Description:
The chain is α/β, with parallel strands linked by helices. It contains seven helices and eleven strands. The strands form two sheets. Strands 7-6-5-10-8-11-9 form a seven-stranded parallel beta sheet. Helix 4 runs parallel beside helix 7 (226-238). The protein starts with 13 loop residues before the first strand and ends in a 5-residue tail after the last helix.
Amino acid sequence: MDVQLKSYKKDFDYSYSLGVFPTLELLNFQAHKVIKVVISQNGMENQGVIKILDICKKKNIEIQINDKAINRISKKENCYAIGVFKKYDIKLSEFNNHVVLVNPSDMGNLGTIIRTIMGFGIRELAIVRPAVDIYDPKVIRSSMGAVFKLSFQYFDSFNDYMNLFNHDIYTFMLNAKESLPTVKPNELTPFSLVFGNEGSGLSDDFLDIGTSVIIPHNNEIDSLNLSLAVGIASYEFTKNTIR
Length: 243
């Protein structure tokens, strides 16, 4: 596959992992999707880069030393490695727990959410359009490469999602009917934790879908940051299974 090493655009059929650690995660979990790895001459003695070179040699992955391309793609100092990979889809499973993001718009939040839910054992993410591009290198970098361990799937509407999965649904809203500390999930049924856009949250239409839940906090703030809310909810729903 021939690729042009230039700044990422959404319509590319490939993307980049920026930095040593995200590129190591790419090589460890999605090596079959890697087109090539670009290395900076300045990073040849970096221990992470040495690991990358060793993996690429063992897996017969092309290595290119090209500082100009790295500077053009990354636009950040001290980026010693970039992985170039083909975009891919991993369908969600009906048997696993999901986080569902409805119209997420912030790349940093999305990357943080991916890393957070992975830490709590939730490995599947549904994203309802319109939404941020999960393949954007900014998302990949902010996830610290956790995205390469994740199953994710885009949907054109929340109804499309519900038509495929018969999960216990919990919608997180400020005007919810239940408070998070009182919610007791059924451990025998997969759950879906549903969150709205960073600015507007979920519409009132979601009040009658599944169980609506609020994360209680005092009146010093109006709401929690989306990535924090997802992290708190994910912990509460998985705390009895984390070892």
